[in-house]
Amino acid sequence: AQKITQTQPGMFVQEKEAVTLDCTYDTSDPSYGLFWYKQPSSGEMIFLIYQGSYDQQNATEGRYSLNFQKARKSANLVISASQLGDSAMYFCAMREPNSGNTPLVFGKGTRLSVIA
Amino acid sequence: DGGITQSPKYLFRKEGQNVTLSCEQNLNHDAMYWYRQDPGQGLRLIYYSQIVNDFQKGDIAEGYSVSREKKESFPLTVTSAQKNPTAFYLCASSRTPGTSGGASNEQFFGPGTRLTVL
Fold this sequence. Notes:
Strand content of chain A: over 45%
Number of helices of chain B: 0
Number of strands of chain A: 12
Helix content of chain B: under 10%
Helix content of chain A: under 10%
Order of helices and strands of chain B: EEEEEEEEEEE
Largest sheet of chain B: 7 strands, mixed
Distance between the termini of chain A: 38 Å
Radius of gyration of chain A: 14 Å
Oligomer: heterodimer
Radius of gyration of chain B: 14 Å
Structural class of chain A: mainly beta
Structural class of chain B: mainly beta
């Protein structure tokens, strides 16, 4: 079974609108961390936002927020006020257990296209 | 500026040849990682190292080898045993937990090397 599932291969959003990118995960470990990365066409991976399994509040970083629903094992990324520069691949990833330097497991990604 | 460098950016290899991809970081991070990315796919872990002179296999280590003789460097060799090496290779590092920084201990990535087998 996949650890991280991103069901949307591609998404389109109008500039200045909000968009939600879906991510579900599978783990039996109570301690885990969830990450979202952005990959522009240049290929670099840019860290966006993090949510720990014990965090009480949903994470926010500027225009990015994470809709964390623990019981449903989902960690959707919400981008508000989309910009043309948001067009990129977006990857959800998990670290389990959430300790040390355990490597991340990545989903297959969602390609977001922002339309003017 | 601190960061991760990978070289070369593009690499072409003939079948049957070994090639080595360079990864250097000046972030003073203990842990380093190698991932492979195929078109339309996520990242898959090849090898990782949490400390100098120690490394562990990831999910797709067959046909690859690494060394970690210095904290700053984690080169990846793609051997002739790797049947389908054409891919984009990303190196990453992360700090020692408990040192300065937030709870996320996120991985920092280099710009990547695109390897093509001719």
